Amino acid sequence: MAIWNSLGKYRDTGLLVLRIGLGVMMIMHGLPKLQGGPELWGGVGKAMGNIGINFMPAFWGFMAAATETIGGLFLLLGLFFRPSALLLAFTMVVAGLMHLSKGDGVSGASHAIELFFVFLGLVFVGPGKHSVDKK
Predict the structure, then answer these.
(1) Please, what sign has the CA dihedral across residues 85, 91, 95, 98?
(2) How far, in whole angstroms, is CA 132 from its chain's centroid?
(3) Counting Cβ atoms within 10 Å, is residue 78 exposed (0-12), middle (13-18) or buried (19+)?
(4) pTM to 2 decimals?
(5) Residue 15 has pLDDT above 80, yes or no
(6) Could you give the C-alpha distances from 50 to 55, 57, 102, 124, in angstroms and in order?
(7) Which residue from 13, 22, 115, 11 is spatially nearest to 74, judged by alpha carbons?
């Protein structure tokens, strides 16, 4: 069908929609963690133990919360896009491993696993022309 073939010219608009949707959701997911303070950060940061990092859990929890919040904002804006997407992908690896180690199974970890692949793909695709990075 001709309509499907013509949508290719809106690639950058599609990336904008994807960036806005993912960015807003990551901000909404990360901001409560960021506002939670050191006690919450310590709990979140313990997930780094799944990759052998057992020191300073509050620092790592803060970094995860900041990555989700600020990285989500940068994703939305298309600012520092590729580094932000890469950090978000790493955060999703740790989140997925945390769910698996808790016994949640693949169904419990699927959201983080799916987002890992989305963010990794965005590292390669880039933010599109409707972004601060392209201005």
Answers:
(1) positive
(2) 18
(3) buried
(4) 0.92
(5) yes
(6) 12, 12, 10, 27
(7) 22
- Residue with token string 């990336």: 15
The token pair that represents 48 in the structure block: 């780094």
**The pLDDT of residue 1:** 67
Task: Work out the average pLDDT over 20-40.
Answer: 97
How many other C-beta atoms lie within 10 A of the C-beta of residue 19? 23
Closest to 130 (Cα-Cα) out of 85, 77, 91: 77
Is the sign of the CA dihedral 13, 21, 26, 121 positive or negative?
Answer: negative
Report how far residue 96's alpha carbon sits from residue 98's, in angstroms, rounded to the nearest whole number.
5
Q: What gap in Å lies between CA 58 and CA 88, rounded to an integer?
A: 18
Residue with tokens 């799916």, as numbered in its chain: 114
pLDDT tens digits for range 75-132: 999 999 999 999 999 999 999 999 999 999 999 999 999 999 999 999 999 999 999 9
